[in-house]
Amino acid sequence: MKVKNQFVCQQCGAKYAKWVGQCTNCGAWNALVEQIVEPENAKKAAIEKGRLSGKKLEFVKISTIVPSDAKARLLTKFEDLNTVLGGGILMGSVSLLAGQPGIGKSTLLMQICAEVAKNHDVLYVSGEESAGQVKLRAERLGADSERLSFAASTSGNDIAKTIESGEFDLVIVDSIQTLMMDEIASAPGTVSQVTNCGNLIIRAAKETDTAVIIVGHVTKDGTLAGPKVLEHLVDVVLNFEGDRYGGFKTVRAVKNRFGSTNEVAIFEMVAEGLREVQNPSAALLAERMNTDGSVILATLEGNRPILVEIQALCTQSNYGYPKRTASGFDINRLNLLIAVIERRTKLKLSDKDIFINVVGGMKLNDSAADLAVCVAIASAVAGRKLGEEYVVFGEVGLGGEIRSAFRADQRIAEARKLGFLHAIAPATVRDKFVVPVKDLRETLIKYVK
Predict the structure, then answer these.
(1) Which fold has domain 282-447?
(2) pTM for the structure as a whole
(3) How many helices (H) and strands (E) does the chain have?
(4) SS3 breakdown of the chain: % helix, strand, coil, rounded to 5?
(5) Which residues sit opposite 439 in a β-bridge?
(6) Contact, 218 vs 98, CB < 8 A?
(7) Could you write out the three-class secondary structure of 145-179?
(8) What average pLDDT score do residues 307-329 get?
């Protein structure tokens, strides 16, 4: 039978009869890879003729099923990570951990292995590193348990077969982009290989009630690499974020079938590996100098309140087009806030280069950071300080109005704990600690002195 080829987009899985530069389905450039089309076989012909080979399902009453949460979970040494996972690693669950190269994924997984292997059998499968490399990391992190095993393989078939044996309670697969199936001719990391290898591993994990953690790569813009179907197949998707060269690193659940997606675990890298940060607010403010452009923001990382320093620097622009730069804050949101400041407060910023920095490598996705950023910019332009007794939070609307913030009571409690006296916050918050504000212009005139 004649072998046919087709071109498959590695971002969305769309198929084409010939190569094109841009995928018309998802818009990705140079994402098409040539693959061999499997020939029609007897099973496909039977399906087309309506002769199905299935059988009646065996079913049970739902009242007799023991919930998965009733089973014991595998606990890591990190309490916050256990919370992110919904109470620990559930037996039979499949988790996907993604993060930038060098962020510390392998370090975190080896520390998890070291703790779980004290009471359970664990297998670490690597398709990227040799046994010697993994051994050096294990020695450095104290993962020398007799119940921790290692295997080097890039065969999805072999890994799934090993999981099906039921010899291990936890299996780590590092990483899914290196695996391939013998039955598929495409290269490792392609849509077909990632999807089919993922399906094999997930099926084996569910059949034997084995917990599996799969490592995934990310693209240059930080999104999970590979087909979106992989995220749908697994039970938990964890994002490992932060600056790989320093600062805090966070693990948050993008998807979690067994718990909340509002929790976050915060780590810092030390010589002994990753260490949980118990009081990130105090650590972030320890070296603060109260200068113009410096404002303390009461924000949330998941359900955890954190105080972070927002720094703004404004200089005279030497070119016709002013520069706007943000580290840890969305640049599009910054441009919007600058437009609101110029229109609603009459503060002239069109000839100023503006730089925003979130101290500690934190990345803010909190709309309540708007007011703190605006106050920091105004403070830097005017060369005036905000009082040391204030923390700031609140969303800024296009009309210059200050809107309510999510979980204001937790933000206030964290500020009180660290010794602050007042919070410049939306007027909708009813608390003696809060200095209520309704309008951006009045706020800047009254408090930036």
Answers:
(1) Ribosomal Protein S5; domain 2 (3.30.230)
(2) 0.77
(3) 12, 23
(4) 30, 30, 40
(5) 401
(6) yes
(7) CCCEEEEECCEHHHHHHHHHCCCCCEEEEECHHHC
(8) 92
